[in-house]
């Protein structure tokens, strides 16, 4: 049983850490913008330090080291993740960048705690060094395949026209360097779309919620002021959204 626990922990933990690392590196801008830890804690618990920690744990899991040496850092990592998910419950999770937008929930806590428990119970098991290496390498391979699928889906979404939008609202925040860069180029962003474009600083809780509690963000609304798109965060994704809205109208007009 302990052998199975150790193998399952390595398979699940290594795959998730690798996928998380690849997703954050491929979508760095979105990961930084929606990262839930800010302020002085963000300097040590931001996407950069967390990605470095994930890379280190994956390297340990892939190295030909004794199984206990691999499992203990893995268990510590997912214990920390379970604690973080508990503290950040309800806040947006940037673990996988913008590829898999989710919020921290009880499922995150339970899932991370289960992987940590499997790792701890697998420490005294008889899993061989070679078997552990094969499991870790296979997990990284599978996670890489999943990453390719998610990347292609994100690229396909970025090419899809945006329909049914009457106007856009770009939400900004006062102490946001990305927002300052966007504000300085209002005319450039407005020229990307044929829809009315409003810039609004999110000062109320309702506005922050509409923006997805990350800035800058753009949301498309219908004529009655009802959101018809999910919040899109980051300078490049915002530009893509505005361009696609104009392209969507052109395609609709040509079809007629």
What does it look like?
This protein has about 260 residues and is of the alpha+beta class. It has 11 helices and 6 strands. It has a 4-stranded mixed β-sheet with strand order 4-3-5-6. Strands 1-2 form a two-stranded antiparallel sheet. A hairpin with an 8-residue loop joins strand 1 and strand 2. The longest helix has about 30 residues. It is elongated and about 65 Å long.
Helices and strands, with pairings:
Blueprint: H1 2-26, H2 28-34, H3 39-45, H4 47-62, H5 67-87, E1 92-93, E2 102-103, H6 106-122, H7 129-159, E3 167-172, H8 177-183, H9 186-190, E4 197-201, H10 205-210, E5 217-221, E6 232-233, H11 235-255
Helix pairs in contact: 1-4, 1-5, 1-6, 1-7, 3-4, 4-5, 5-6
Distance between the termini: 64 Å
- pLDDT under 50 segments (min length 5)? 250-256
Strand content: 5-15%
Beta strand count: 6
Helix/strand/pairing category:
alpha+beta
Give helix and strand order, one letter per element, not per position: HHHHHEEHHEHHEHEEH
Helix content: 55-70%
Q: Average the pLDDT over all residues and give the rounded result.
A: 90
- Main sheet strand line-up: 4-3-5-6
Largest sheet: 4 strands, mixed
Rg value: 21 Å
- Indicate the overall shape: elongated
Count of discrete alpha- or pi-helical segments spanning 4 or more residues: 11
């Amino acid at each position: 049983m302990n052998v199975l626990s150790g193998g399952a922990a390595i398979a699940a933990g290594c795959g998730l850490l690798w996928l998380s690392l690849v997703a954050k590196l491929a979508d760095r801008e979105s990961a930084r913008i929606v990262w839930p830890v800010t302020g002085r804690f963000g300097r040590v618990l931001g996407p950069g330090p967390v990605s470095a920690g994930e890379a280190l744990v994956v390297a340990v899991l892939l190295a030909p080291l004794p199984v206990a040496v691999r499992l203990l850092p893995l268990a510590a990592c997912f214990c920390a993740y379970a604690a973080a998910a508990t503290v950040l419950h309800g806040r947006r999770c940037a673990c996988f960048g913008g590829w898999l937008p989710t919020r921290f929930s009880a499922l995150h806590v339970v899932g991370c705690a289960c992987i940590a428990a499997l790792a701890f119970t697998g420490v005294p098991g008889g899993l061989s060094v070679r078997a552990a290496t094969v499991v870790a390498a296979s997990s990284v391979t599978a996670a890489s395949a999943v990453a390719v699928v998610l990347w292609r889906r994100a690229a396909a979404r970025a090419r899809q026209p945006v329909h049914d939008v009457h106007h856009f609202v770009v939400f900004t925040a006062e102490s946001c360097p990305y927002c300052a860069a966007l504000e300085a180029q209002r005319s450039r962003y407005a020229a990307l779309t044929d829809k009315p474009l409003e810039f609004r600083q999110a000062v109320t809780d309702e506005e922050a919620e509409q923006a997805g509690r990350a800035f800058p963000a753009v949301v498309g609304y219908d004529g009655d002021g009802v959101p018809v798109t999910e919040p899109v965060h980051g300078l490049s994704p915002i530009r893509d959204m505005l361009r696609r809205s104009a392209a969507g109208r052109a395609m609709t007009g040509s079809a007629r």
